[in-house]
Amino acid sequence: MQFNPVIVDLSHLDNVHDWDAVQKFGILGVINKATEGPGLVDRTYAIRRKPASEHGILYGAYHFIRRGDPIAQADHFLEVALNVEQPDELLLALDHEDRGVPLSNAKQWLKRVFDKTGRMPVLYSGFLIKEQVGQGHDDFLARHRLWLSHFSST
C-alpha cells in the first residue's frame, strides 16, 4: 500500500526545487518551520510562502519549542510567522518533540498564541505527548487539534 501525504512539514533541512512537481504530486498544504527555541528563524519560511501560494498550496507556520521561556518563544514565533501577506490565512502550529520541554511549557505557548491571535494553534507531537499525557485526560489540550506524528515500518 502506497501512502502519499497531502500535507507536509518542511524546514531548512528540506530542499524544494520544483513547486510544479509538489503540486502534481498532490500536496495540498505545507507547514513550514518558522522558528525554533528562543531566537532561531528558519530562513526558508518567508521564501516558500509565495511559490506555495502561486501553486494553490495552503501554507502554515510552526515553532519547534525548546527549553526556556515559552511566552518569549511564542512572541518570537508570532513576530516571524505573521510578518507575511495575509497572515490570517496561516495555520499556526507548535512542534512539541523535545524531551527537555515540560508539557506545561507547551501549554503556555499554545495559550499565548491563542491570547495574541484569537486562533487556536495546532499541536504537533507524537511519542512525547503520549508519554506526557499517558492514559489521562487534559481538558486544555482536548480543545486543540492534534497533528499526531506516528512513524512505523508498516
Report on the structure:
The protein has 154 residues and is an alpha/beta fold. It has a single domain, classed as TIM Barrel, CATH 3.20.20. Helices cover 36% and strands 21% of the residues. The chain has six helices and seven strands. Strands 1, 2, 3, 4, 5, 6 and 7 form a seven-stranded mixed β-sheet that branches. Strand 1, helix 1 and strand 2 form a beta-alpha-beta unit. Helix 3 crosses helix 4. The longest helix is centred in the C-terminal third of the chain and has 15 residues. It is globular, with a radius of gyration of 16 Å. The N and C termini lie close together (9 Å).
Question: Briefly, what is this?
Answer:
Helices cover 36% and strands 21% of the residues. With 154 residues, the chain is of the alpha/beta class. Strands 1, 2, 3, 4, 5, 6 and 7 form a seven-stranded mixed sheet that branches.
**Could you tell me the radius of gyration in angstroms?**
16 Å
**How many individual β-strands?**
7
Report low-confidence residues grouped into runs of 5 or more: none
Shape: globular
CATH architecture: Alpha-Beta Barrel
Overall pLDDT: 92
Sheet/helix structural class? alpha/beta
β-strand amount: 15-25%
CATH superfamily: Glycosidases
Q: Biggest β-sheet, characterized?
A: 7 strands, mixed
Continuous helix count: 6
Element order, helices and strands? EHEEHEHEHEHHE
- CATH class value: Alpha Beta
Number of domains: 1
Termini distance?
Answer: 9 Å
Helix proportion of residues, in percent? 25-40%
Topology-level CATH name: TIM Barrel
